[in-house]
Each structure stands twice: as structure tokens, then as C-alpha cells.
Amino acid sequence: MIPTGEITGTSEPNKTATRTNTPTQLQVLGKTKDGRDLKVRRIWPLPFVCFADRGFDEGVAGHISPINAPAFAIHSEIHKARPEVNATCHIHSVAGKAFSCFGRELEMITQDALRFYKSHGVYRDFKGVVLDQDEGQRIVAALGQGKAVILQNHGLLMVGESVDEATFWFISLDKTCQTQLLADAAAAAGYKKIVIDEQEAAYAAMRIGGPEKGWLAFQPYYAEQVAETRGEFLQ
């Protein structure tokens, strides 16, 4: 089943990185303003498949945006404010929804959480389904220059320089939310959480939180689906 939510974007990040396994399934859709080829890898179904495999699906509601009004209201404002962002995804995962109801940022209590160190915000002004661009702009303000925003009472929204990057960050953030909820439950029973200190967090975030790291981390998921489907999603 297809998860509830939206994904937009291209598959290639802006920054050049050394890669030995760059996928070849690319389409040239046109030219950018500076004359570069605008390419998109034909993987649109893949993030939805990856998300559904991880239990992010909820019924058959879902779409590739900006087809519908809520997707356009949010995503268009993100792309206008953040020109380096080529991909945006928003899914109503269980852990993401559960953590979002607290309206707070994640604590830096695990190494994986450091991917989002000073790179995620919280949007606390929930007003139901987003339909106007003004609210889209407020969500952009909460996102800032980060890669993620927790939408209070709603779910998670992720951005990246590629579909691959944004998809992996979303998977990682959802797991981080789940870990936070488990840690909070243990803390309520009397166990003390140990938060990673600022210096170590900042250093680790630079090593594991960049666009190329997100792109690279998604490639096993890509290879897995190619093997399982024999590349049918590329047709």
C-alpha cells in the first residue's frame, strides 16, 4: 500500500561527490537557469515502496506532489525559499505522528540522532490540512536551514538535495523519533538519559549529516528494490 504523504524532487544532489556506483537510470527533463541538464532518476515509486515496507503506509491515500493543494502549499514555498533543495517528502508514519504530539525537538541521545543536530525544527501552529501558502511560509520558517521539521500533531517533513537523500533522512528520523519515545518511557521509570555533549554532537554531525552521506546511505535500499523487482519500477 502507498503511504499517506508526498514526495517531490530529483535524484541527483547539487554538490559533486566521488561515487563509484552512480545510478544510470536518468532522464533529462530540460535545462536549469544556468544551462545545466535537469535530470531526474526514474525512481518515483521507490520511496513509497521503501516507506510501505517499513510500515509507514496508512490505507491507499498518497500522492506524488505537487498534485494536490496541501502538497503544493507546503512544497512550493520550500523550493522557493531553499533553492538547493531538490526533494521534499512528508509521510504520516506512526513514530513520527506519536512524537510530533509533544511539539518539541529531539534530544541528542544517540549517534543517529546527531544527523539532525541543529538541523531540525518544530512547527507548532497546527491548523489541520495545509491549504494556503501563508501557512506554507510559516512551515518554511520553522524548517530554517535544516533538513527536517516536526509538524506538531501531524508528522514529519524532510528535505534534501536529492530524492535519495530526503528518503533516507526520513527513514532515519522516524527511527530516531521511535528511539526518543522509548528512551522517554524508560526515563519515566527512573532511568537517567545521558545527552551527548555539544562539542561531540557538532563534530559528529559534520561527519554523518551531509547531503552525500544521506545519498550514499539510501543506495542499499535502491539496490534492494532493483533486486526484488528486477528493476520493474524503472520502466
Automatic annotation (TrEMBL):
Q: What is the lineage of its organism?
A: Eukaryota, Fungi, Dikarya, Ascomycota, Pezizomycotina
Q: Classify the source by domain of life.
A: Eukaryota
| Name of one Pfam family that matches | Aldolase_II
| GO annotation, cellular component aspect | cytoskeleton
Q: What is this protein called?
A: Arad-like aldolase/epimerase
SUPFAM superfamilies to which the protein is assigned, alphabetical: AraD/HMP-PK domain-like
Domain Class II aldolase/adducin N-terminal span(s) in chain numbering: 51-181
Per the UniProt record, the source organism is: Aspergillus homomorphus (strain CBS 101889)
Query: Could you tell me one molecular function GO term of this UniProt entry?
Result: actin filament binding
